[in-house]
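Service request form, structural biology core

Requester: graduate student, group of Dr. S.
Request type: structure prediction, single chain
Budget code: on file
Notes: please return the result as structure tokens.

Sequence provided:
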Amino acid sequence: MNDSLKVKELLKLNKGIITTRDVESLGVHRKILNRLIEEGIIERIASGIYIAIEAIEDTYFTTQVICKKGIFSHETALYFHDLSDRTPIKYQLTIPSGYNTKLLKDKKYKFFYMKQELYELGITETVTPYGKTIKLYDIERTICDIVRNKSKIESTLFVDAMQRYVERKDRDFIKLNEYAEKFKIEEEIRKYIEVLL
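Core staff response, request fulfilled:
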């Protein structure tokens, strides 16, 4: 199989996205990417990241390809967990303290820094509307995040998310309390839950 076919096969396997690193792991020189751009098969969407011309760009997925440690959180996670009907204006992600990403200066993103042991708490996965897997925080972690940042969230969005959480059949108050203890917000969480129940 020639180099061009190898890359095209990988493109199919990766649902239309490849990176320079992916190509090099096949033992193929990165120059093949320029040839595929010239042939109109792929286009460059960010440094080292390419998408098939016929593919629809999934910005949630490509965000995590570019920012590997970014975990969708806060209002973006509310949207994916059906705790809000609003499509987020900015993609909100949590990254470990000290982590640097080229997206930090991009105005369509909002980043939250978190120390390592709390950064990893509640990471789960979901599938985007385009069928790609992304990482985000689970429902209980998302509730903790919005309670901790309540002053920065519109009040109607906050109340709606809390109400929807309490009404869910899959809510887990034990897990919510465990997370709240780690963030030292048990009293706040308890107060909101008691009012809504």
